[in-house]
Write a structure and sequence with these properties.
The structure is a homodimer of 352-residue chains. Chain A has 352 residues and is mainly alpha-helical. Chain A has one domain. Chain A is built from 15 helices and no strands. Chain A is globular and about 60 Å long. At the A-B interface, helix 10 and helix 15 of A face helix 10 and helix 15 of B. Chains A, B: Keywords: Membrane, Transmembrane, Transmembrane helix. Chains A, B: It comes from Eruca vesicaria subsp. sativa (Garden rocket).
Chain lengths: 352, 352
Amino acid sequence: MEYRKIKDEDDDDHDVTSDLENLKGKSHTVTSSNIAMIGPGTNEITNWKRKGVVTCALTILTSSQSILIVWSKRAGKYEYSVTTANFLVETLKCALSLLALTRIWRKEGVTKDNRLNTTYDEVKVFPVPAALYLFKNLLQYYIFAYVDAPGYQILKNLNIISTGVLYRIILKKKLSEIQWAGFILLCCGCTTAQLNSNSDRVLQTSLPGWIMAIVMALLSGFAGVYTEAIIKKRPSRNINVQNFWLYVFGMAFNAVAIVIQDFDAVANKGFFHGYSFITVLMILNHALSGIAVSMVMKYADNIVKVYSTSVAMLLTAVVSVFLFNFHLSLAFFLGSTVVSVSVYLHSAGKLR
Amino acid sequence: MEYRKIKDEDDDDHDVTSDLENLKGKSHTVTSSNIAMIGPGTNEITNWKRKGVVTCALTILTSSQSILIVWSKRAGKYEYSVTTANFLVETLKCALSLLALTRIWRKEGVTKDNRLNTTYDEVKVFPVPAALYLFKNLLQYYIFAYVDAPGYQILKNLNIISTGVLYRIILKKKLSEIQWAGFILLCCGCTTAQLNSNSDRVLQTSLPGWIMAIVMALLSGFAGVYTEAIIKKRPSRNINVQNFWLYVFGMAFNAVAIVIQDFDAVANKGFFHGYSFITVLMILNHALSGIAVSMVMKYADNIVKVYSTSVAMLLTAVVSVFLFNFHLSLAFFLGSTVVSVSVYLHSAGKLR
C-alpha cells in the first residue's frame, strides 16, 4: 500500500521519473567496455551469460530507480525541469556510446560494423521510437482529465499485453500457449500487487479514457518492439553505433520538448535550476537503465524486458520494507506469487 | 465487494451453509437414475461425458447454494438449528441412495457389487471422513478467537493447497509441474477475487491462529482425499452402496452434534423450529451438491472438485450482479482471470 502510494504521488507531481521511464524504451548505449567487447560469433554459453548479465543489470537499475524517487521525495526536492533532465539522460547515453566506441576502435580498429558513418537507409528508421515516445508523453497530459494518477498506474499494466501482442505481430516471433498464459498472468499479477482501496475507481473510467489508455499502451509497446526490430535488423552492426544514432534523435526530440514545455522556466531560471545531488543520481541511473534496456533488446528481447521491469517493481517494494518501513499488503503477496509463477511458465513453456 | 460481504456475514451468523459446506466432502449418493444406471465398462467417451456432467452439476449446485444464502438472508430467516439441518441433509442423501439402489436392483438384480450387505473390512474406514469433519467443525468455533470472519474466508483458500498436497501424498497421483503452477494460481486467484479493504488484517493473524487455520485446511483436505480413496478402492462397487454407508455414519455423527450443541433448543422449541421454505430448498440443494461431490470423487477426483467449487464461487458473483445488483471489484476481475488461466493450465499441463 505504502509503496504504491509513493508510485502514485510520483505521477501526481509529474516528476522526472515518469517521463524518464517513457524514455527508457528508446535509450540505448553500452554500459562498459567488457560487455561491448564481446563480438558476434561467441558460443551459446557466452550468449546466455550476456543475456543474464544485462537482464540482471536492468532489473537492479529499475529497482533502484524507484528507491531513488522515494529517497528524493523525502528530501522534498523536485524543482527542476523534467525536460532538461530527459535531455541530459539522452546526452549522457550518447557520450557513453561514443566512449565505448573509441575503446573498441582502439582495440579492433574501425571496421564496417563499428564505424560511425551510416547510410540513409540505416538511419531513416531511428527517429521513429523517439517520435512515438514524444507523442505518448503529450497524450499523458490529456489522459489525466479522464483517469486519476493511481488509476493511470493500474492502466499502465496494459503495456504488458500490448508489448506481447505487438511483439507477435511485428517481430513475428511466436510465444507458446503456456507463455501467453504466463504473459496474461504477469499483467494480472502486477496489477494485483498494486491494488489499493481506491483501485476500483479505475473501472468507472469513461470510454475516451479507456481509448487513450489503450492508445498509449500501443504507442509504448510499438516503440519498444520497433526499437528491437531496428537493433536486430543488422545483427553484426555494433550496438554502440546503433545506440549513438538512436540517442542523437532522442536528444533532438527532447530539445524540442524543452522549447515546447519549459521554455519560460529555462529562460528565466536557467537550464540547471533546481538540480540536486539526487537529480544527478537519477539522471545517471536512467542513463544506465537505458543502456541496459538497449542491451536486453540486442541480446534478449522485449518479453525479457517486460519481465525484468515487472520483477524490479516487486523487488523495490520488498527493499522498501527494510529501507523505509513500508508495509506489504496481502494483495502484494498474491500479486508477487502470480508474477513468480508467470516467470516460471515463461521458461517452462519455451517452444522447442 | 458486495458479494464478499454477504459471504462474510454468512460466517458471522454461523448459518447452515458454512456447516453444510463442510459436510459436502462427506456427502455421497446418486442424483437420479440415469447417471446411476451407467455401469462400469462403458467406453472412454461415456466416461468423459459422465465426468463432465457431474462436474457441471457440482458447479451449478454450488453456485446456487450461495445464491440461496443471499436470498434467504433477504427474507431474514435463520432461526433453525444448524445441526438439525445437517442431520436432515445426511438423511435425505441416505434416502436418495436407497431409492437409486432399489431402481438398480429392479433392473439388474442384486449382484456382488450392488448389494447393501458389507463386510467389516469394507465398512471400517467409512466413519473416518465424518469424524474428521466433526473435529474440523469443532475447531471452527475456536478459530474465531484468533481470526475474524472475513479473514477466515481468506484462510479457507488454504484448503486448495492442502487438498493438492494430500492428493499427491495419499493417493500418490502425480500432477505435472504446469498443473502445480495452475494449482498455486487457483489459490491466489480465489483469494484475490475475495479481497476487500479489510483483507490485510489477516496478515496480522497470530501464530495459534495460523496453526489452527492450517490444521483445519489439512483436516478438510484429508477428509476429501480419504473419501476419494475409499470410493475408488473398489472401482466396481456400486457408488450408491458406498454412499449409503458413508451417509449412515454422517447421520450418526450429526446426531451426536445435535445432542452436544443444540439439545436445549431442540428439546424446548422442537426439531423443526424456525424452518422456512428456503431452509427446505437449502437442505435439498445441499443434499444434491453432496451427491454431485460424491459423483466427482468416483468418476473424476478431488482436483476436479476443487476447481469446480472455485469456478462456482466466481459464477455466483457474476450471477449476483444481475440478481442482486452487486458490484464487481477490480480484484474480482483479476482473480477471475487468474482462475481462468489456472483452469487452462490444469488441462494443458496434463501428464502424458
